[in-house]
Amino acid sequence: MSAPPASVRIVEVGPRDGLQNEKTIIPAATKVELIDRLSQTGLRTIEATSFVSPKWVPQLADAAEVFAAIRRQPGISYPVLVPNEQGYERARAVGASEVAVFSAASEAFNRKNINASIDESIERFGPVLERARADGVRVRGYVSTVLGCPYQGEVPLADVVRVARRMHAAGCYEISLGDTIGIGTPKKAREMLLAVAAEVPMQALAVHFHDTRGQALANVLACLEEGVAVVDSAVSGTGGCPYAKGATGNVASEDVVYMLEGMGIATGIDLDRLIETGLWLSQQLGRETSSKVARASQ
Amino acid sequence: MSAPPASVRIVEVGPRDGLQNEKTIIPAATKVELIDRLSQTGLRTIEATSFVSPKWVPQLADAAEVFAAIRRQPGISYPVLVPNEQGYERARAVGASEVAVFSAASEAFNRKNINASIDESIERFGPVLERARADGVRVRGYVSTVLGCPYQGEVPLADVVRVARRMHAAGCYEISLGDTIGIGTPKKAREMLLAVAAEVPMQALAVHFHDTRGQALANVLACLEEGVAVVDSAVSGTGGCPYAKGATGNVASEDVVYMLEGMGIATGIDLDRLIETGLWLSQQLGRETSSKVARASQ
To answer: What are its E.C. numbers (chains A, B) (predicted)?
Structure first.
């Protein structure tokens, strides 16, 4: 165990991972306003949308419209999710300069979700990475189901390590390790992170926890203690879990920032503005915020 | 930092600390059923009720009736809160064999709540401890506002240590350190615990976190890493916070047990039964459970 990092970069995934799992579909203009508001909070990375087929993610069918309309600020990166070359082209057409690719670490999850093995799914984003390299576009990689899978249950650590290593070798500057179904606990999160960090530099790793079982912040803490310095989260704790009804989604950015700043770990984020943005968003979605820090502020 | 303990004792405080802060007042028979159900989950300590004046805690005005009716099981302790000798006598009259006394670590909180200084509040429970010693009654001590106070803000560590040390010296077998307003973060929780543990043996300490800002499980984790092996929690995460509207109350026992068991730390608790009891309780209270583990199980 090492000392926690002196500063942490928050990757705000609410506009993509959060909204794609919300029942309520909000208008493109509201999404644009959300991202523009987030750009004023001190965040340096805001995942803006997804160019996955609208057939699969109707919530983000307006990806091109949203991305074209946001007021991009200097010093902030706005990655977008792309499933394949076609998605990459759509993203590039509206000026995206950072993209994200993804694969589950679970064979069963990949087969069920994209009808491919882990190896096939990695092969599929190969062309995206090649084109991105040629275009000078940065690529982030998501590994999902790193602590468990709704179909196969346990996911071997070796599979998580293999996917992360291949993403890194293929040119992803950062690999986000995601507990997609929010099933992990701190000891397992720590062990998973350390197993990956034995093959991919810690500085190239991020952690991504869903709060399905209330474990997300404790898992973040365990990983901070091992030296991870990038944390994915979603303002207002948006999202849900298709595998657990009534479950909460991504860990709330407000609660992560509150913890980090309380521990003396700098985030560069204005927590009051973030809370305000989250409360505004929950109004747009017509539901209570999932951020406890935001609730306590009211 | 040491290794987490191999096993943890959960002190279930829902029937007292939880219910005393719920808006809905449930009938005595329901409280009795709650405690009897909890007695079947593997818990070894269940705080049953409070003999504080009904004027201050109308939710638990039926303390004597409830305590007399529960089916006490061998091997389980059922402490009750007592504010003074009069409360102690009422508790003893119905057969309580363990009691709990309390004091805030904050001067301002004590003055506002019980119109006494810290020293006066400690003097007040002196007679209770003397009588308990003579009667062979075990006494638990609660120190509240250990990480912050709604009136004075910061609470000096020295005050927390002083109250805990005096409770221990006066004969409390265990001191529960409570973040009453749920304002703390892991680094501060850790530092507070270590400061107290420098003067009171770690084996005599428990931690008690409210989840007002979502930090409770992370705080528990940080304290486990320092060797604490007793954790207070409330089934279904009952309770609230009079100082933050809409805030959640005690950390949910289900979520704590899920984390501990997931880390290989034995609790002796049947999580499924605990979840079932919490869901039943939330029905009685007419509100959604605050346990995310319980929500994910539905």
So the answer is: 4.1.3.4
